[in-house]
């Protein structure tokens, strides 16, 4: 976990860093508050901010304002790449055909800062597996919210359905995740 001092000398622990695609989808679904509830402050690279907010504003994309507000509300913290991480980006891009600079930077930052990465691109997930970088996808983060008691089963179910639709996730996968959340809730109620 990365620790750093934020405004007001408050120490912040980061567990997660996010890629552009995940950030855009979650902003579109009005789900950034749920992500923040589950993970607290989330890291993002300057290239993700540039791609989502700055380029999004130039194109008039409403999601850009949603993400900018979340950044201004301190739900996200920009992480700078170290020299070692920059070399890792170069190596990843040389070894991996088709991986974007932004995804390579997010992966390098996750690796260097020992963070889990929330990432959607299939090639980038393959790189994460190969490099031993822990990752999750937006389809499963609501389940982690229920496990950590940060989201209610109803919130989780709503997010699973909306994310599933947005990502065109196979219905069987969505239903399996929904069933898992219900089973967790049933088990907890039974234990009371």
Integer tally of domains: 2
Low-confidence stretches: 1-9
Instruction: Label the CATH architecture of the largest domain.
Output: 3-Layer(aba) Sandwich
Radius of gyration from CA coordinates: 17 Å
The major sheet is characterized as: 3 strands, parallel
* Broad CATH class of the largest domain: Alpha Beta
Label the overall shape.
globular
| CATH topology title of the largest domain | Rossmann fold
Order of helices and strands: EEEHHEHHEHHEHEHHH
Strand arrangement across the biggest beta sheet: 3-6-7
Ends distance: 33 Å
- Total count of helical runs of at least 4 residues: 10
Q: Overall mean pLDDT score?
A: 91
Notable characteristics:
single chain, 192 residues, alpha/beta, Rossmann fold, 2 domains, three-stranded parallel beta sheet, two-stranded antiparallel ribbon, 12% strand, globular, disordered N terminus
Describe this structure in words.
With 192 residues, the protein is α/β, with parallel strands linked by helices. The protein has two domains: 2-136, 3-Layer(aba) Sandwich (Rossmann fold); 141-191, no CATH class. The protein has ten helices and seven strands. α9 packs antiparallel against α10. The chain starts with a strand and ends with a helix. 38% of the residues are buried.
Describe the structure in brief.
The chain has 192 residues and is α/β, with parallel strands linked by helices.
List the helices and strands and how they pair.
Layout: E1 2-5, E2 11-14, E3 16-18, H1 20-28, H2 32-39, E4 42-45, H3 46-59, H4 62-72, E5 76-79, H5 83-95, H6 101-113, E6 116-118, H7 122-131, E7 135-136, H8 141-147, H9 153-167, H10 171-191
Parallel strand pairs: 3-6, 4-5, 6-7
Antiparallel strand pairs: 1-2
């Amino acid at each position: 976990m990365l620790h750093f001092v934020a405004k007001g000398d408050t120490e912040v622990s980061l567990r997660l860093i996010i890629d552009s695609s995940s950030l855009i989808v979650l902003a579109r679904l009005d789900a950034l508050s749920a992500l923040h509830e589950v993970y607290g402050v989330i890291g993002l690279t300057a290239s993700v901010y540039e791609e989502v907010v700055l380029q999004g504003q130039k194109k008039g994309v409403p999601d850009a304002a949603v993400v900018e507000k979340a950044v201004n509300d301190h739900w996200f913290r920009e992480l700078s790449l170290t020299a070692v991480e920059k070399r890792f980006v170069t190596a990843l891009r040389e070894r991996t055909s088709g991986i974007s600079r932004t995804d390579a930077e997010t992966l390098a930052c996750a690796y260097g800062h020992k963070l889990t990465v929330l990432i959607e691109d299939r090639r980038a997930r393959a790189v994460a597996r190969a490099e031993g970088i822990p990752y999750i996808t937006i389809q499963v983060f609501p389940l982690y919210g229920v496990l950590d008691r940060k989201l209610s089963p109803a919130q989780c179910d709503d997010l699973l359905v909306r994310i599933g639709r947005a990502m065109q996730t196979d219905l069987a996968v969505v239903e399996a995740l929904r069933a898992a959340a219900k089973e967790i809730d049933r088990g907890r109620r039974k234990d009371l």
